[in-house]
Each structure stands twice: as structure tokens, then as C-alpha cells.
Write a structure and sequence with these properties.
With 338 residues, the chain is of the alpha+beta class. The chain contains 9 helices and 12 strands. The two termini are 33 Å apart.
Length: 338
């Protein structure tokens, strides 16, 4: 759906606050400190707008307490538009673009974008697939590696270079995706991909009652034996799909996910530090799992992102903080989820 920029929630603080309250407290406010529903609103000019009081624990709170927006000085109307822009932009929304459109500093826009990505992260993903369903597994490599590669032991299932002149991504950041055909995706960044950590990721995120489709990589034959059926396509021989209908064997859905991700990272974000890569993957995965093809429009997707902001914090940890964490990746600061 088209963003209606004249909507009051993008300009008026009261309208924006009411929107966030409707998403977090559809049945009325509850205390984020103790969970009590015995809370009342504090009226009057002497109180902050939207301030509530818990009769059980005696603490005060607003709709932003206990969310990624807590202690932010950015107006709620700008937060509402930021959520909408990032949820509705298929290939992402850069911090510079947020900085220009929202009229906030680049530093604030960068931090806001990361906090929205944290809100998009699925804390309790359910396994993909099931009996009769197809799961596609594939790896991709994006961006120059910044962390040392883990020492490699002999691994008979480890993939080998399959393309002339390619090193199998040894100097790039490995990404592994599981994509349910016509369904959702689970994507992770690994420092090194081998049969052990790949199996751990796959059995945690996919039902072994599913059919597994992969390319010819040597990583998958042993893992594939644990699934209902394992079939492959041979990309090195330019085979990308085989069969039709229910018998179609391909990894095109996983390739499609990586296509959108790489175009977004190259054309919109251009660069991200390796320590932040998983958050970018979570952002693209969120939009993929809540796409129009699955019946979710921009308005609903924004609401899901706002609802995901509850119970999460992302703190700003500068180079002079007590932890002495270096300012890496973005050139601004490091971030720490809590």
C-alpha cells in the first residue's frame, strides 16, 4: 500500500503515541516492569503525555518503556515514519535516506535503523516445512571477511570450489539460507560453513519430515539423509531446475532471497561491518517472511515490526564506554542487544 504522508501519525505526536499504544496495548496498558494490568493514566499538564502509573509496583511508564525506542529523544511521529519506511522498502532504507527524510542527524538515523532491525528480529522462529513440503538450502558469500577464519579440520562433507577461478568464498562472509517453497526463510551468517554447524542450523530451523533440495555442494549429502528426501540440481553443469509441478527440483526460491538481499546491500547500503551483518539479514528476512505473496501488505508489515519492538533493547556503546569497545564497522559505534 502507498504511504499516506498526510496521515497524522507521521506529523502529530499524540496521533503517533496512540498508534504505538494501539499496537502494544490493544486491550489497555500493562506495566512493563511487573506485568500488572492494574495501571492508570496520569492526566494533567504536569505529567508527560501518555504517562501511566502502576498501582502494584508504583512505577511510572510510557509506551516506549521496555522497547527499542526507550530513552530515545526522537519524536514518536518520526519513529512511526521510520518504521513505515523500513518495513515498506523491499531492498532497504539507508541511514542517509532516513536522515534526509526524517530531518534527524545521520548518527540518530543510523542508530534508529539498527533498533528497527532489532525489532524485526524473530526471537522464537518455528521450524520450516513439514510432511510433503520442500525446503531449499543454499549458501552465499557477501562482503570481505573481517574476522579470522576458523581453523579447518579434515571434513569429508566440506564443499569444494566448483567454478573456475573461484575459491569457494574463503575471503568472503558466508551466509546460509533455508527457504520453504512458497513460505518463509531462516537465514544466518556463519564465520565458517562446515557440515557440523550447517547441520545444527538446519535441524533447528527445518522439520526433517520435509523434502530437502540443494545444489551439488558436498556439505549436504550426509545431512540430506536425515530428511524425508534429498534431491539436488547441478549448478556447475548449468542445471537450475528439473521436473515440473510437485516434482520440480530447484533452489530458485533460495536464490531469489539472495538476489533481493545482494541488490539491497549493493545498491542501498553499499557496506556494513561484519558484526552487524546478521541484523541486515534479519531485516531482509523479516520483509521476506511478511511479503505480499503471503498476504501481508505494507501496513500490516509495519505493525508487525512495531509489535516486535517490545521486550528488546539495543544500547549505544561508544569507543570511550566502560567496555572500551572499539568503534568498528559503521564508523560510529558498536551496538549491544539486551
Amino acid at each position: 500500500m502507498t504511504i499516506i504522508l498526510t496521515d497524522p501519525m507521521f506529523h502529530d505526536e499524540t496521533a503517533a503515541r496512540l498508534y504505538f499504544e494501539s499496537q502494544r496495548w490493544p486491550t489497555g496498558p500493562y506495566c512493563p516492569h511487573c506485568g500488572s494490568t492494574d495501571a492508570c493514566r496520569m492526566e494533567g499538564e504536569s505529567h508527560q503525555a501518555g504517562m501511566c502509573y502502576c498501582r502494584d509496583c508504583g512505577k511510572k511508564f510510557t509506551v516506549t518503556v521496555g522497547t527499542v525506542m526507550e530513552r530515545s529523544h526522537i519524536p514518536l511521529a518520526k519513529w512511526a515514519l521510520g518504521f513505515r519506511l523500513m518495513a515498506g522498502s523491499k531492498k532497504g532504507m539507508s541511514a542517509h535516506q532516513l536522515h534526509r527524510q526524517l530531518g534527524i542527524t545521520y548518527k540518530s538515523a543510523w542508530f534508529m535503523a539498527h533498533r528497527i532491525r532489532e525489532a524485526m528480529r524473530d526471537e522464537n522462529p518455528t521450524p520450516l516445512g513439514g510432511e510433503g513440503k520442500v525446503i531449499e538450502a543454499d549458501e552465499a558469500y557477501h562482503g570481505k571477511r573481517e574476522t579470522p577464519r576458523e581453523p579447518q579440520r579434515h571434513d569429508k562433507y566440506r564443499s569444494k570450489p566448483t567454478k573456475k577461478g573461484k575459491s569457494g568464498g574463503a575471503q568472503k562472509r558466508p551466509i546460509v539460507a533455508l527457504v520453504e517453497r512458497h513460505g518463509e526463510a531462516r537465514v544466518t551468517h556463519m564465520n565458517t560453513v562446515n557440515s557440523k554447524n550447517l547441520r545444527e542450523f538446519m535441524v533447528k530451523n527445518a522439520s526433517r519430515k520435509s523434502k530437502l533440495h540443494t545444489d551439488e555442494s558436498g556439505l549436504y549429502p550426509a545431512i540430506g539423509q536425515e530428511f524425508a528426501k534429498h534431491e539436488t540440481v547441478n549448478h556447475s553443469r548449468h542445471e537450475y531446475a528439473r521436473g515440473k509441478g510437485d516434482d520440480l527440483v530447484t533452489t530458485n526460491w533460495a536464490e531469489g532471497y539472495f538476489g533481493v538481499f545482494k541488490r539491497g546491500m549493493t545498491g542501498i547500503y553499499q557496506h556494513c561491518g561484519e558484526q552487524h551483518l546478521q541484523r541486515y539479514l534479519d531485516e531482509f528476512t523479516f520483509r521476506y517472511n511478511n511479503r505480499v505473496a503471503l498476504g501481508v501488505d505494507d501496513t500490516d508489515r509495519t505493525a508487525y515490526a512495531v509489535q516486535g519492538a517490545t521486550g528488546k533493547r539495543l544500547t549505544y556503546r561508544g569507543p570511550n564506554s566502560a567496555t572500551n569497545a572499539p568503534a568498528v564497522g559503521s564508523g560510529i559505534s558498536d551496538l549491544e542487544a539486551r
